[in-house]
Amino acid sequence: MTRTLPVLATLLMCLAPQGLWAQAPAPAAVEWQAFTAEDGHFEAMFPEMPKTYTDRRVRNGVTATTHVLAAGSPSFYCMAGYTEYSASIAGPNRSELQAARDDYINSTFATLLESRNVTLLRPPGTELQAVRYIAIADTRRYTSIMAIEGSRFYHVVASSQRFGFSPGDVARCLSGFKLLPAS
Description:
Elements: H1 7-15, H2 18-23, E1 33-36, E2 42-46, E3 51-59, E4 62-72, E5 76-85, H3 96-107, E6 111-122, E7 126-136, E8 140-149, E9 152-161, H4 167-175, E10 178-179
Antiparallel strand pairs: 1-2, 2-10, 3-4, 4-5, 5-9, 6-7, 7-8, 8-9
């Protein structure tokens, strides 16, 4: 079975060549800033100007289109965006949200470490069903919140080195993600 990696899994390779980061001077204190997605109805905090990525993939007849904003370095990056599926991805024993979470975890070759149900506020007063989870791979740690609204799955991911990551950066990435009022 051929496995394609979505933009979320391959983003690390797109940010910059390893050699460029190895030559960079030690980072100074970073002031995170909020950026609004033009068509995504959300805003997110990033340590620098984010880049926009779009990916479309088809698996088992279902098309997944992903739009993300992302910024960071190979040791830590923050990404926020959404994926829309053309059909249901739920399984017999998994909800749509669990299936989307597992799809991301599998695409990064990670293992689910913990997961809990939460809600995400959509102003002015709607709460969306969401899940907050941590997954680990050989060298990476993914801390994420994913919420479902119709066929759209919003997600924010703090991807860091598995060991020696900054809990403050993870918290800023996740807490900086806000859904905006639907237009």
